[in-house]
Amino acid sequence: DTEVTQTPKHLVMGMTNKKSLKCEQHMGHRAMYWYKQKAKKPPELMFVYSYEKLSINESVPSRFSPECPNSSLLNLHLHALQPEDSALYLCASSRMPLRDEKLFFGSGTQLSVL
Amino acid sequence: GDSVTQMEGPVTLSEEAFLTINCTYTATGYPSLFWYVQYPGEGLQLLLKATKADDKGSNKGFEATYRKETTSFHLEKGSVQVSDSAVYFCALRKETSGSRLTFGEGTQLTVNP
Fold first, then answer.
1. Which has the least CB within 10 A, A52, A110, B3, B37?
2. Which of A3, A103, A107, A110 to mutate to test the interface with B (most CBs of B within 10 A)?
3. How many Å is the Cα radius of gyration of chain A?
4. What was the pLDDT predicted at A50?
5. Phi and psi, residue B96, nearest 5°
6. What is the pLDDT at residue B98?
7. B37, B99, B101, best to mutate vs chain A, most A CBs in 10 Å
8. What is the rounded CA–CA span in Å between residue B73 and residue B32?
9. What percent of chain B has pLDDT over 70?
10. Local confidence band at A108 (pLDDT 50, 70, 90 cut-offs)
11. pLDDT, average across residues A69-79
C-alpha cells in the first residue's frame, strides 16, 4: 500500500461550521504534513508532524487545528473559516522528516467556504 | 531566504516534441532538488530528485541534472506524450530547514496530439 488517502474529496462549509479533514497512510511513515494549495499556485506548508508530535506550524491561524491521533492518521479540524480559506488541502507523508525523503501526497480535499 | 524560480508557463507542445522546463534556485548550503508533477484533480507525485551536485535524476523519460555552478535543475524529455500534460513543480529542501519543501510557481504543460 503506497497510498495516502484523504477524505472527504470535496467539502462545502459555512463560516460558522465545524468540520474535519482526514488523512491516512499505512506505509509506516513517521512524518506527516498538511499543505494548502490555491488554484494555479504551489502548495504552501501548514503543519508537520514528526513521530506524532507537531514539529512545524507555519504561523497558521488557530481556526485550523491539526491532530495526529496515531502514526497512521492525521486530522485537520476546521472552525470559523473564512471564504479566503477555500483551497485544495493536501496531506502528505514521508518515511522520515529528512531532506532526501520522498513525499507521498494524497489527492486532496477541495474545500469551499461560503 | 531560499527560493525556486521556474520558467513561466503555460507551455504548449505537439506530441513527440522536445521539452525543457527551466528551474533555478537560490539557497545556502547543499539543498536536495526535486521535480514533482500534478495531474488534473490529483495530488503531487515525485517525478525525480537529485541530492548532490552533478547528480542526474531520471524517471519515465524525464531527466534533470543538479548543476551547482549555475544553480539550476532543468527538466527535459526527448519526446513528450499527451499523457504528460500536467503541472510541473521544481522544489528544494535543506536539512537545516527541517521538512520544508520550497516550491517554484509551477509550469503548466499541455501536449497536443
1. B3
2. A103
3. 13
4. 92
5. -75, -15
6. 66
7. B99
8. 10
9. 97
10. very high
11. 96
